[in-house]
Amino acid sequence: MPHLFARLLALAALLVLPAAVAGIVAPRTTSPSGNVALPLGHNDQTFKILQLADMHIKTGTDYGCLNIPRDGSPCGDRNTTDFIGRLLDDERPDLVVFTGDNVAFPPDAKKAIEIFTEPVINRSIPWAAVFGNHDAQGNMDNAQMMDIIESLPHTVTSFGPRDIDGVGNFAVEVIDSSNETVFSLFFLDSGAYSTDPDIGGYDWIRPSQVAWYRNASAEISYNNPHDPPELVFFHIPFPEYHNATENVVGDKQERVNSAQVNGGFFAALTDVGKAVATFVGHDHVNDFCGRSPENPLLALCYGGGVGYGTYGRRSWERRARIINIEDGGRLVRTWKRLDTGPKGTPMPMVHEQILWQANW
Ligand SMILES: *[C@@H]1O[C@H](CO)[C@@H](O)[C@H](O)[C@H]1NC(C)=O
Ligand SMILES: *[C@@H]1O[C@H](CO)[C@@H](O)[C@H](O)[C@H]1NC(C)=O
Ligand SMILES: *[C@@H]1O[C@H](CO)[C@@H](O)[C@H](O)[C@H]1NC(C)=O
Ligand SMILES: *[C@@H]1O[C@H](CO)[C@@H](O)[C@H](O)[C@H]1NC(C)=O
Ligand SMILES: *[C@@H]1O[C@H](CO)[C@@H](O)[C@H](O)[C@H]1NC(C)=O
């Protein structure tokens, strides 16, 4: 009997092992501040985030792709999800962040959400999503889509407080094996279009959200012996991106399409002093990180467009940003991967840089 038991255990271990290799994570925990907590990987050393910007998933079918860098037909949403699958297999991120315009004008938003989340869910990778200005232009509003997103496996996304502006303002904490938070990740809904008839253009992160950020950030510091540094994700760049002209790494090929109003979020991040980088999408052919003289300690980054069904640039590959927390949370490195062709071709790594390094 003991032998049989041991053999059963060995068999169980064999059955469990491939799942562990495939990246299935421990059951998620909640931090004392009430946020989802995800563990640092590789013996408390690293945590890799893949940012996927502006997928613009519509129906999952083929249609003429826009501004593709090479000839390729048929072409459509499946080229976008193929690229995502190859990125996931090559980079094996610990978290995937969809930074908005995940879907665009979807006739069936539920189906469109299932299409872009499938490669991530299939691989059991935790993921977070924020909304852009095009997500709600199909058959559902953001609250309806959030109900679907929250019900899907492996997501760390949450609706967030209902008494502030936006849908999907939430924080996630990256913790070490002693349960100390080494990094906080903030996700905000930067809205869609201005609802003020006197102001045109895009929406902005509102004062209620800025107040929520200040409180949530303070709560995390209150519950930890050190102030954890922060990474911040949202869709529409704030006006300070116009001034991100110092230490630029990457390409700027269109204007910064920020709101006309400054909602004060950059000022709050500067005042709180814990954020080391922000990551937005929205402007598909900008993929740079730069710094504004108003706060050179904060890197202002774009992801670069992933989606084939929306505008890109003919001589410029679709791409995605990797953000790698290293050295147990004391260093943040970033780079991008380019889609140069079908399965089997390499995805060149470009624009590698260190965004932040601790002075402890
Ligand atoms: C899109 O995917 C199809 C099917 O795999 C392929 O034939 C085509 O070349 C791809 N297009 C681009 C631009 O990569
Ligand atoms: C995900 O898994 C399902 C079921 O095994 C499979 O049908 C589908 O093709 C997979 N999708 C991706 C993107 O790998
Ligand atoms: C960390 O927290 C989990 C539960 O959230 C607990 O099971 C574990 O013992 C804690 N570890 C340490 C080192 O405190
Ligand atoms: C955050 O807000 C809650 C509710 O208003 C309050 O109880 C708490 O003290 C605040 N936390 C901090 C650190 O300001
Ligand atoms: C950008 O820089 C200009 C020139 O220094 C300055 O007047 C402006 O206030 C800055 N804008 C923002 C949003 O910081």
What this model shows, in words?
The protein has 360 residues and is α/β, with parallel strands linked by helices. It has one domain: 4-Layer Sandwich (Purple Acid Phosphatase, chain A, domain 2). Helices cover 23% and strands 22% of the residues. The strands form two sheets. Strands 1-2-6-7-8-10-12-11-9 form a nine-stranded mixed sheet, with helices on one face. Strand 6 (170-175) and strand 7 (181-187) form a beta hairpin. Helix 2 packs parallel to helix 3 (109-122) and helix 5 (207-222) runs parallel beside helix 6 (265-272). The longest helix has 20 residues, at 2-21. The relative contact order is 0.16. Mean pLDDT is 92; it is low at 1-25. One 2-acetamido-2-deoxy-beta-D-glucopyranose binds at residues 85, 118-119, 122.
How widely separated are the two ends? 55 Å
Beta-strand portion reads 15-25%
Count of all domains: 1
The general outline is globular
Cα Rg: 20 Å
Kindly state the percentage of residues in helix: 10-25%
Average of pLDDT: 92
Question: What ligands does this structure carry?
Answer: 2-acetamido-2-deoxy-beta-D-glucopyranose
Number of helices: 6
Write down the CATH topology. Answer: Purple Acid Phosphatase, chain A, domain 2
CATH architectural arrangement: 4-Layer Sandwich
InterPro entries: Calcineurin-like_PHP, Metallo-depent_PP-like, PAP14/16/28/29
Keywords: Signal
Organism: Fonticula alba (Slime mold)
Pfam family, one: Metallophos
Question: Topology, pairings included?
Answer:
Blueprint: H1 2-21, E1 29-30, E2 36-39, E3 47-52, H2 77-91, E4 95-98, H3 109-122, E5 127-129, H4 142-151, E6 170-175, E7 181-187, H5 207-222, E8 230-233, E9 246-249, H6 265-272, E10 275-280, E11 289-291, E12 299-302, E13 319-326, E14 331-338, E15 349-357
Parallel strand pairs: 2-6, 3-4, 4-5, 7-8, 8-10, 10-12
Antiparallel strand pairs: 1-2, 3-13, 6-7, 9-11, 11-12, 13-14, 14-15
Helix pairs in contact: 2-3, 5-6
